[in-house]
Structure formats: structure tokens, C-alpha cells
Recover the amino acids of this structure.
């Protein structure tokens, strides 16, 4: 799941540099991802994984590749 999210980040950022340098647990925003890029990633994840984000999703879910992946996996349970 984390690799699939990284692939989406590569597609959105037009290169592998960001995805290759950010760790799974690092804050995407602190690593330099803009708000617009994060929203784009969330939309791409909806398309890729076939779900819609809830309006009341906890902010910590959106923090890192790990937390995003864990959320998607939990949705499939």
C-alpha cells in the first residue's frame, strides 16, 4: 500500500525525488508537500483505491505515507 501511495506521489510531483526522500512516518507537510499537492494526493487515492474520504477524518490520518496507508487498509477490513 505504501508503495502505491508513493507511486501516486511520483505521478503528482512529476518525479521521484520527493517520494524517494520522504520516510513513511515523516509529516508530508513538513517534508514540503503543499496543501494543494496533499489535496491532489487525497483525490488520487480516492480514484486509485475506490473510496471517498469522510469529512470528519482525523488530521493525523493525513500526516504521513504510513498513516494514509494504514487508513486505506483499515477501510478494507
Amino acid at each position: 500500500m505504501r508503495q502505491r501511495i508513493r507511486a501516486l506521489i511520483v505521478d503528482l510531483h512529476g518525479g521521484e525525488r520527493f517520494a524517494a526522500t520522504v520516510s513513511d512516518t515523516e509529516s508530508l507537510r513538513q517534508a514540503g508537500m503543499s496543501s494543494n499537492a496533499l489535496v491532489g494526493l487525497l483525490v488520487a487515492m480516492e480514484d486509485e483505491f475506490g473510496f471517498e474520504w469522510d469529512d470528519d477524518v482525523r488530521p493525523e490520518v493525513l500526516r504521513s505515507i504510513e498513516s494514509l496507508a494504514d487508513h486505506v487498509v483499515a477501510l478494507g477490513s
Remarks:
- Residues 2-75 form a domain with the Non-ribosomal Peptide Synthetase Peptidyl Carrier Protein; Chain A fold (CATH 1.10.1200.10).
- The longest helix spans residues 35-49.
- The chain has four helices and no strands.
- The chain has a mean pLDDT of 93.
